[in-house]
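task queued by scheduler; priority normal; single chain, no ligands, no partner chains; default sampling; output format set to structure tokens
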Amino acid sequence: MSTVQAPLPQGAGYGVVVGLGVAFALGMLWVTNALKRAFNEDNKSTETFMVAGRSVGTGLTSAAVIASWLYSTALLAGSLLTYRYGLALGVWWGASASTMICLMAFLSIETKRKAPNAHTMLEIIRVRYGNKVHILWIFLCLLNNTFIFSSMVLGASTAITALTGMDATASTYLLPLGVSIYTYFGGLKATFLTDYVHTTVIMIILVWMTIKIILYKEIGSIGALYEAVVQAGKDKPVEGNYQGSYLTMRSNQCLYFGILHVVSNFGAVIMDTGFWQKGFSADVAAAVPGYILGGVASFSIPWAFGTIAGLAALALENTPAWPTYPNQMSEAEVGAGLVLPYVAQTVAGKGGAAALLLVIFMSCTSIASAQMIATSSILSFDIYGTYINKKATDKDLIRWSHIGVVITSIFISTIATAFHRGGVDMTWLVYMLGNFTNPGCVPTLLSLLWSRQTRLAATVAPILGMACGLSVWLGTAYAYFGAVTIASTGATMPCLFGCVTAMFVPLPTSVVISLLWPEKFDWEDFATNIKRVRAEHVSGVDDVEEVVRRQEQDDRERAAYFTPERVAYMKRMSRWAAVWAVFTIIGHVLLWPLPMYGAKMTFSKSLFQAWIVISLIWLWFTLVVAIFYPLYDGGVAQMWTIIQGKTDKGSKSVESGSSSPAVEGVEELVKA
């Protein structure tokens, strides 16, 4: 792939991927045991393993949301696409992250209103539509998680190979190793904790690297970066950009990518059960502010870091310090995501390469843990506990969750290796993803938001959407290029047409079918039929007295949860989240990039300087939200409790159905 000599030895790659992975695993095992001793958080309980006891606070939720968008693909592809098409790309990528996260804030509080005991999004689908539709959704969600997880591992392993010379196949299999260990034992709470640790390290390095790039001797200032990029636009103008400039929002390719990525990410997020589980895990009082704060903060990473690193590559590739000098990067190197590794190597030598290696490892393992939990939950709860052993105990589900973690690690590494050896790169996966993830998006939303979507509509809509999307994708690739190949199917326009088709065909299909053969769903069925998992059987208990006792306990828990104050609070937060989601979509998609696209102008030096400075301020805000706010929001107090070796006597086992302190304080928030 790359003819450039790796700046770091292979030992550095193996040391980080294996050594640091195992070190994190051991550290998280210790933390998991400490939390069990201090706060009675039993990681051998399904309620803790899958949904973290539904007690995660605002700070940790927002940090986890930011971590959810620190994909290695986002860091690598954001830089390479800015290098190709210009600064408009960073805004579009940021919009594709922030908008759907704010939408998830709305969906999160809606699930707490209607299905407060849900463990996976698929459980909601099964209760509403039955087993056949549930099986269809299992396929759609597993397909979504497979493509997202494998693309992330593929991009990370390619970058690690470029930085260290480590064998790509070895890094593909070893990257998830340490993750699988601490996820195996710690569950979703371990994911939240590692999200925080990883995000802390990543944000510090990203802030450092942006400053290092701007102050590098061959650049020196924001104004000098502007001058270098202006010259790059004259030397190799971008087709479809206004005046061929990299410094314009009038970029056809950035616009096409923006539409493609915004639409595709709606499918990728809505059909990723991991995002739903993080919403289930948050306190009632933390779900909306945690998601919105994390969503707004996450905008800065592709905007600030992607813009600065991508434009720096344009400024530096004609200097002797550039790794490929006097040659420019090949298209294969760019497509594989090597723009950012080359920038890091140029501006900071081996130290920059080592820092980026750490960033890629952290971003990859953080997402890997969430994906493992999401996939293992489907295997254990939605497949094993629903169809194989309907009387599965809590212990049975945990065992199969552990098995699911191992299976996921091996399977995804194998798929990523197959992509690598088959000539598929990270960019191809980023572009085509929506063809497979979008068809289930609208029917999933309607399952929670529209009581009249019918079982038939939920069955037909995603199948028809996927059939139409794939047909348009492959047909357009043939029409544009005369052949269906990896290159043609990874091009912008075939992927754009296919993804948009796959997203929007299910909407009229579902609405028309639902209106022609109407049914109406009672939202109370969610609260009645979705129960917490207890230490005994999940279902099928034969003892009549036990059934009666458990039903009485469920009734008491429902009454304690759905107090008038809490219901009023959730309704108000739902309205607020809906307004914020609409506001974010309008602001980040319609009012910001589109008018600037229509303006037909290039950036002046003063505008460019202001643009970069504001993006850096936003990046520092993200650092504060990711690192310091979780500490302020209870993190320091919990750490002090653990250090003192005390036990929180007020903690109650999640199996008792008790609410967390933050949930119990909702009434106080309402009064305030």
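post-processing summary
- The chain has a mean pLDDT of 83.
- The radius of gyration is 24 Å.
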